[in-house]
Request: fold
Amino acid sequence: MVYLEFFILLLEIDAHAVLQVPLPFNPNPSKTGPCGGASFSKTTSTIYRLKTDGQLPFTWNVIAGDGGGTLSASIDPLGGTNFTLPTSLNFNAPTVGQYSTELTLPSVSCTKNNPCTMQIKTSANWFSCFLFETGNYTAKDLYPSMTKSCASVGANTMTYCQAMNNNQVVLPETNNFVFQDSANQVFYNSVINNTNVMVNGTNELCQSMLKNYICGSTLQYCGTSSHLTGMDNCYCESMKKNCGITESHDALFNCSTLPTINDCKNTNQIGSAPQNGGLKSDGYYLAIFMTLLASYLLL
Reply:
């Protein structure tokens, strides 16, 4: 559930709470009101499809303690930033973690040509916004880019996850291979030297495995390339062991979302990188998570 335009923003890593699903205008946490300091357009920004007077499922991510607080939401029926229509949302997200809940849409009419803007914020003033239209939609219609298609990747399309070039790959949640590739590299750079996240980031084996894991968890072979060896939860656990992922950031690398391809009791798997770069995964929401965390560190 989620996707669209992605911006790689270079900013100080001092932000700690953000809307994760749906993806907001600014995927990075921000205290700049009213919409996280991001620009948006009714013609170019993604417009989500919500059932009239229905429920909106969403996920809020608290990255560090100062991001905790009570969530509220309000709407600008004209698609701007004048949030005059409140919702009944009153949800507490007090500590670090991902919180999934729903809010009930008030009676409001929003169309594709004249969408409304939703603002979700915390009592600690972390802001996220997105555009939406209303109609007689069902769950499968909510997110216009939900359908994952198989596409061919050019020879020089990706400079970080290069092993996937010249192959067929599922179009990522960002709907753009170049953006996803950049997001993956920024995420790697944001955690590899952060001793709060891992203690062995200077280890070459850790660096290789982490790269394989990031690419393999956000991109997936398909079509004529579907026979290639994939990323699995055993490799993920091996990476975490070699990199020394700290307990406080263990949830950032959720191995349970990955399939079991190899036997984790096989000691040869510990510390061994897949020959082709380990680039296949069913970690659907992990791909979203990696994208959203691509440009900031966890403290």
Remarks:
- The radius of gyration is 19 Å.
- Residues 31 and 126 are 5 Å apart (CA to CA).
